[in-house]
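Example S7 (C-alpha cells).
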C-alpha cells in the first residue's frame, strides 16, 4: 500500500516529531491538534515544547512543503493518534482524548485506510475502545480498513534519534493490519519492526515502563536500607551491578514524567487483584519526596524558617518537562514545613512553585541559602563546584538526592554533605 497523505492527531512530544519525520521523508502530513495555542504557535513556525533538535526538524518539515497544521483531520491514507492518556486522581486512565480523536476520524475514514493508536493505553483499548468508535463509520476494522497499535518508546531528550533507530512494535487488530502498519513505519524506522497483535503491543509498552518503575522502586528501598545499615547505596549498587546478571537502577527523590509514573497504574486498573507488586512499587516511588524531606530534617533539625536553595524542578536531567516531577513534590513538602525555598530550573526559569521564589541563575538561587538541595541531575548541578557554592551561600549544608556530589570535595569546601541512601554518617 502506498501512503501519500497521513493525518497525525496530537502534536505533543510524540505527535510533532512523528509528523515532522514523516514529512521530511516525503509523505504529505496534516498535523492536527485541538489546542488553539499549539496550532497558532506551530503555524507561526515556532514550537511549544523543548526537545533537542526538534525546532530544526519541524522547520525542515515546513520547508519541505509536506507539513501542514490544522485543528481538524481530513481524509487521508492513514491516521495516527498520538494524544495524551494521563491518569486521573483515582489513578484510572483518562481516555477522553483518545475517544475524541477517534470520533474525529470517523467522518474521514475511507475503505483501505490505516488507523494507528500510538498513545500508551490500558490493555485491550485498541480492540474494545477504538475499534467500536471507528466502526460508527460503517466500516469494519480489519476488513474494510486496518487498525493497529504501535507504542511510542522514545526517551525524552533523545526522541529524534530513538524514533528512527529504536525497534518498533506494531500490533494489528488483524495480521493484515500489522503488515500495513509495517509499510507505513518502514518509511523512516531503521530499527527492527516487530509485528504482533494489538493487545500484545499494548502490554509490551506497559511492561517496559512498569519493569523500570519496579527496578527504581527496589533501588529506592535499598537506599533506605543502606541508611539504616550504615552503607553507601551508590557504591553498593555499583558493585552489585558488576555481577553479569544484575542491573539495579538509581535511587532518587522519586519517579516523574508522564510515562513511568503513570503507565503501571494502567495495569493495576485493569487487574487490581493481579498487581500487588506493581502497585507497591508505585507507592514506594511516590513516597520518595517525603523520605527526602524527612532525611533532611533528621540531619539538620526543624525546617521552619530554613533558607533552602532547591536545584531543579524538571522530572529528569536536561529537559524542561515538569510533569509529575518529584522535585516539585519535594519543594511543596519543604514549604509545608515552613522552609523558605528558592528554586532554580535552568530549562524553565519562569516556572514558579506556589510559596517558593524562582531564581534565574545558580548564583541567585544560592545567595543567602543555608542549605543547597540537589534534586535534578542537570549537568549544571551535577558539576556544581562546592568551593563556588560555599562562597555564594550563607550556610554550609548540602543534600544530594542524585548520588552525584563527591563527599570529599564537598567536605573539603566546608560542607556537611547529606546524601540520599548514604548511611555511613548515621550508622
Ligand atoms: N529515574 C530514577 N532512577 C533511574 C532512572 C530514572 O529515579 O535510575 C527517574 C527519573 O529521574 C525520572 C523517571 O525515573 O523522574 C523517569 O525517567 P526515565 O528517563 O527513566 O524515563 P522517561 O519517563 O523519560 O521515558 C520512559 C522510557 N521508558 C523506558 O526506558 C522503559 C522511554 O523509552 C519511553 O518511551 C517513555 O518512558 C514513554 O513515553 O513511555
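Recovered sequence:
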Amino acid at each position: 500500500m502506498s501512503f501519500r497523505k497521513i493525518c497525525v492527531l496530537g502534536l505533543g512530544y510524540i505527535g510533532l516529531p512523528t509528523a515532522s519525520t514523516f514529512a521530511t521523508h516525503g509523505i504529505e502530513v496534516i498535523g492536527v491538534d485541538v489546542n488553539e495555542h499549539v496550532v497558532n504557535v506551530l503555524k507561526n513556525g515556532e514550537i511549544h515544547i523543548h526537545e533537542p533538535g526538534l525546532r530544526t526538524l519541524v522547520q525542515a518539515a515546513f520547508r519541505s512543503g509536506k507539513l501542514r497544521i490544522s485543528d481538524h483531520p481530513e481524509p487521508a491514507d492513514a491516521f495516527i493518534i498520538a494524544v495524551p492518556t494521563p491518569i486521573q486522581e483515582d489513578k484510572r486512565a483518562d481516555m477522553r482524548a483518545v475517544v475524541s480523536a477517534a470520533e474525529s476520524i470517523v467522518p474521514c475514514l475511507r475503505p483501505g485506510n490505516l488507523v494507528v493508536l500510538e498513545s500508551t493505553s490500558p490493555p485491550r483499548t485498541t480492540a474494545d475502545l477504538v475499534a467500536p468508535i471507528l466502526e460508527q463509520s460503517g466500516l469494519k476494522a480489519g476488513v474494510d480498513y486496518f487498525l493497529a497499535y504501535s507504542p511510542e518508546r522514545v526517551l525524552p531528550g533523545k526522541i529524534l534519534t530513538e524514533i528512527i533507530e529504536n525497534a518498533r512494535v506494531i500490533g494489528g487488530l488483524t495480521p493484515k493490519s500489522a503488515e500495513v502498519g509495517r509499510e507505513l513505519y518502514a518509511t523512516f524506522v531503521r530499527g527492527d519492526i516487530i509485528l504482533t497483535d494489538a493487545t500484545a503491543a499494548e502490554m509490551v509498552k506497559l511492561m517496559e515502563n512498569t519493569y523500570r518503575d519496579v527496578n527504581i522502586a527496589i533501588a529506592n528501598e535499598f537506599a533506605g536500607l543502606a541508611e539504616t545499615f550504615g552503607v553507601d547505596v551508590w557504591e553498593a549498587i555499583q558493585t552489585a551491578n558488576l555481577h553479569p546478571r544484575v542491573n539495579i537502577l538509581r535511587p532518587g527523590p522519586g519517579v516523574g514524567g508522564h510515562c513511568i509514573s503513570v503507565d503501571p497504574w494502567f495495569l493495576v486498573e485493569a487487574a487490581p487483584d493481579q498487581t500487588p507488586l506493581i502497585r507497591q512499587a508505585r507507592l514506594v516511588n511516590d513516597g520518595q519526596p517525603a523520605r527526602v524531606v524527612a532525611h533532611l530534617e533528621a540531619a539538620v533539625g526543624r525546617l521552619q524558617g530554613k533558607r533552602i536553595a532547591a536545584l531543579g524542578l524538571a522530572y529528569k536531567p536536561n529537559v524542561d518537562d515538569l510533569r509529575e516531577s518529584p522535585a516539585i513534590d519535594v519543594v511543596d513538602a519543604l514549604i509545608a514545613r515552613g522552609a523558605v525555598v528558592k528554586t532554580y530550573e535552568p530549562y524553565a526559569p519562569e516556572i514558579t512553585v506556589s510559596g517558593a521564589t524562582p531564581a534565574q541563575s545558580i548564583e541567585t538561587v544560592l545567595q543567602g541559602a543555608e542549605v543547597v538541595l540537589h534534586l535534578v541531575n542537570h549537568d549544571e548541578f551535577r558539576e556544581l563546584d562546592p568551593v563556588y557554592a560555599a562562597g555564594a551561600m550563607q550556610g554550609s549544608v548540602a543534600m544530594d538526592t542524585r548520588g552525584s556530589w563527591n563527599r570529599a570535595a564537598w567536605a573539603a569546601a566546608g560542607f556537611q554533605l547529606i546524601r540520599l541512601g548514604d548511611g555511613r554518617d548515621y550508622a
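Notes on this example. The mean pLDDT is 96.
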